[in-house]
Amino acid sequence: MTAETSRRVGPVAADLSQIVKAYDVRGVVPDQWDEGLAELFGAAFVQVTDAGAIVIGHDMRPSSPGLAAAFARGATARGADVTLIGLCSTDQLYFASGHLGLPGAMFTASHNPAQYNGIKMCRAGAAPVGQDTGLSDIRALVERWSDEGAPEPAAEPGTVTERDTLDEYAAHLLSLVDLSGMRPLKVVVDAGNGMGGHTVPTVLAPLPLTVVPLYFELDGTFPNHEANPLDPANIVDLQQRVLAEQADLGLAFDGDADRCFVVDERGEGVSPSAITALVAARELAKHPGGTVIHNLITSWSVPEVVREMGGTPVRTRVGHSFIKEEMARSGAIFGGEHSAHYYFRDFWNADTGMLAALHVLAALGSADVPLSALVHQYDRYHGSGEINSTVDDQAARLAAVRAAFASRPGVTIDELDGLTVTSADWWFNLRPSNTEPLLRLNVETRDPATLAPLRDEVLSLVRTTA
């Protein structure tokens, strides 16, 4: 690394606290970080992981190739050999990390707007790097080197090689799901101009599918809609196209294609909790008696289905680092979140929306009913979805809600992640955002008539100005 690098990144480093999040690095380029800072992150990553070799991939954002190359320069300057796999989805990077046995770095900002970019880092075998597992140490080194200048290069710099892992990634995924004998299906896939446009054609090519592509052109400016399928506004085009094509289902991927959202033949969104339950049932059929992880915002349906299938459900906090840590600790076979992240033991405990999509296709392809009927057994209750409220004092609003419900008969309260209030007929969770002045509310009820009054009561307490 050069003196120019150190001089260039100095002012940016003052705001490092704004870009190093709980699980990754993410911020506006070049205002909050740039290639000079990416170079220091590459050097710090190698030092903290003590890696002799790493693998690097990137998404389709305009800034991604340059940032990935800068990270590689920092890594090789510290003596590590670098394998560049180029354009890939985040789960393709996890595959490369697991398959090659190397720590990895993925350059993406997922569904954030075009001016953002970030780094998702992992140790060998796709083990997560978060605040408590190396990210805080990486940040400390980058801060020090930004102030003092780049570290001395290694006596012998590392090498750089290129490798295309797309075919190997597709073959591995296809080997994990029994897709034999499935009937032909028509599926509309909305890639949102993200990395699904790169991975979907290869992964789905061997299957008896008619694929109707939406926004497969790689374009990190996201000209058609935000690449976040959990926002209902972003699946409108998919819903309309499913109906127009009389398709069997629709799939929507986020920007880095590690999350997958499903739409049924009626154009209705399928709850990620229902997908979690469906995939859990299939994984438990393969691995009888296994443990399944679910975060505390997934539906009551998930632990019910897991128990009915002879498995053990384990409830955990929201967030991939918690899910992955619990999966490793418990030997769980599968994990699911309300945000359409799906984790598989057979995929190094990492999340892959593509593998979840293959399970849905296999289940539907072997059934003689439409998707809406297939998932009905897994969608037993009535949910609000996640509702965000901007608040000035998160702690005060949480305390007000707790006080309002604590004395009610038959109610239990826990604080595993925010505030969860449960009765015999309903539950809700209210939790603060780690990065924004928001409280996030999720409500579920047995009776549909109960949902709106309960939701509105909690929101009135959260949004009061008194």
From TrEMBL:
SUPFAM superfamilies, per database record:
Phosphoglucomutase, C-terminal domain (SSF55957), Phosphoglucomutase, first 3 domains (SSF53738)
The record's EC number reads 5.4.2.8
Biological process terms in GO annotation: carbohydrate metabolic process
Q: Is Acetylation found in the keyword set? A: no
Listed Gene3D superfamilies = Alpha-D-Glucose-1,6-Bisphosphate, subunit A, domain 3, Alpha-D-phosphohexomutase, C-terminal domain
Q: Where is the Alpha-D-phosphohexomutase alpha/beta/alpha domain?
A: 18-144, 167-267, 275-381
MF terms from GO for this chain are: metal ion binding; phosphomannomutase activity
Please name the source species.
Streptomyces clavuligerus
Q: Which family does it belong to?
A: Belongs to the phosphohexose mutase family.
Cofactor requirement: Mg(2+)
Name the UniProt record assigns to this protein:
Phosphomannomutase/phosphoglucomutase
Keywords carried by this UniProt record: Isomerase, Magnesium, Metal-binding, Phosphoprotein
InterPro entries registered for this protein in UniProt: A-D-PHexomutase_a/b/a-I (IPR005844), A-D-PHexomutase_a/b/a-I/II/III (IPR016055), A-D-PHexomutase_a/b/a-II (IPR005845), A-D-PHexomutase_a/b/a-III (IPR005846), A-D-PHexomutase_C (IPR005843), A-D-PHexomutase_C_sf (IPR036900), Alpha-D-phosphohexomutase_SF (IPR005841)
Cite the source lineage.
Answer: Bacteria, Bacillati, Actinomycetota, Actinomycetes, Kitasatosporales
Question: NCBIfam families from the xrefs?
Answer: PRK09542.1
